[in-house]
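Two quick folds needed for the group meeting slides. Do the first one here.
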Amino acid sequence: MPSITAPAIVLVTGANGFIAAHCVADLLKNGFAVVATARTEAKVLTTFLMHKHHPNLSVELVPDITAPGCFDEAIRNCDAVLHLAAPFGYSYSNFEKELLIPSIQGTLTICQAAQKTPSVKRVVLTSSFASVYDASKGLQPEKTYTEEDWAPLTYDDGKNAAITPIAYRASKLLAEKTAWDFVKKNDVKWDLVTLCPGMVFGALIEGTINNLKSLNTSNGIVWSLFGAKDIPDTKAPIWTSVTALAAAHTKALTTSEASNQRFLITNGEYDTQEIADILHASPLLPQEAKKRIPVGSPGKRLGGTHYKVDNSKAGRILGVEGPKLDDTVVELVQQLLSYEKEQTQ
């Protein structure tokens, strides 16, 4: 199908979230009109404020993304969709109710809404490396993951998981498969693109959170170094720049060759020792802040001890490049330290 170009109208679900806020900002910067959705009136207002009431932004209230027809009004007259509304975190009491159903059903409802909307030509789904990675096989230093790989998890694996990361990986996998299955089983007039990032790091759009307790899970990995006695374990050693990911969403719309493709959007490997080393070495951070970060074993890296990721397809087709890990985490920490200072005043 042809590409989607500005000033097309793009629906962005879950628009007040960390990644989605960057996607909205990138779309607006590139001349698109955006219809955003948020789940509460407060988040509707927050979304407007984050983008300074941009004239090309409207925000619709969608309280329950699993409700049949919930996106029908918001999607009207839209040319494309970025679907980002989904749970992400590590604190849940009922995996089926809080992770699996919202992820899967939310994806189904957006596909159904797109199917009923003749103007929609492309749907971009934000998936995850979690839907690619097979944790059951361990670190596999000899393995290189590509878009052809799929996690082997089932619905029951997620529902009955012993730990949250398994349930989360199942939710992302099953949500993405729901979208691809919908395209295969229905006579759709739009095409699908799925993006699979690693751990997403980067400064937040101002207003995304109102306190550090609300910090998103991936950036929380960086912030967890502060006050830690030892270097925390690395949860997943592949990272993605949030600005590169937002640009990839826009490119997934504007690039005709992206049609019905799956992409790994990654910027490289990382580990928490490396982040600690970067922060200690940065001349942009105050010494008092550095004292709160454990030293660990400077220079020690996980590289060579775990799987790799081949992101060449995204580079070749979407042409997205991102900032370095150093710049990304230092900018983030500068922002978080300023938030912390504001909260203590």
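Then this one, please, same format:
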Amino acid sequence: GAATWLAEGLSIEEAQLTPQMDLRRLGRHPTESQWLDIARRWERLQGDIDQWLAQGLRFLDDRIGDGNIQVMENEPFMLEEDQMDETAEEFRLFEPEKMVLPMPSILGPEWCTELGADNMIQHELALQEGQANDALHNIRVHLADKAVIFCTTVRTAKSQAMSTRACTQVHSVDRAVSINASIYSKCRTQLANLGADDKFLERYHPLLKEHLKVSMAVADPNTRGQRNNTLAWFWSMDVEGDSRNSDWLNEFYHVHWLHAKALKDRWEEEHLLVQHEMNWTCDFFMHKAEEWIQLGTLTKDKVGHLAYAVWQCKMYQCLCQDAMDAFNKARDPDNRREMLPEVE
């Protein structure tokens, strides 16, 4: 039915990302074997697109496919910028990997209504959400694998050959992360095009390159400088069965949960200490004021000394009062919201 047709379209969109990334790495002077490999993949991809468009005539009007072919404007999400280069001119003559498939998210709700395909919008919403969740799950798995590779392979390499093989594994994982990050970014854009509400989109934040950094806490949890490190937002998403099939991912979650708990405990302790320090500050000022009062009583016959003691006593009393006012303002929840900056 329509849901199966849409699912096949999403699979084709995923398949379009791989040759698009590979072309960026070939540069201007590809070899013959690379040229033939790309040509075969283009042929298979174009055949899948043609077959998918032919099947779509059962669900959409035959006007789909008329006119100019749309081309993707979004660039793939790539981690290895140093390997990116301009593509040879010959490759730009035929680019099935950049064709935009006429999905409901591309056509828009109004055109879908005109074509009598309103029900397909809800089908694609559910499929895009599932694809986004799968992409985030794969990103988590690959990032955890990358941390393991650094721990067990890169750091233990004793020769140039072992180091080269380890770097090849890292680049392979980076490629998988880039593909899934591109899939997620595409899904989020298409969910917005389908009219998903703001509450739904708040769960799926924009994905940035700094979110894809590898955490080395599993390799060495006691390394200095990790005390205030936090994971990216997608690590806290509740995905059922996320770590059941991966012992390393399970350990990754355990280590970072312990880090987060230790950070929470430290801030709870700091919150308690700060309140005591407020009281200790006021008590110190009052103690100094009383001390100067006692010194003033010892010098009643010396007017200058008495005046100086009174001046010091009054100064510490004012400091105590100012401190109490400032601390009470800080303790007030309403004032605290105004003092703290808003977190975007």
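Slide caption for protein two: The radius of gyration is 32 Å.
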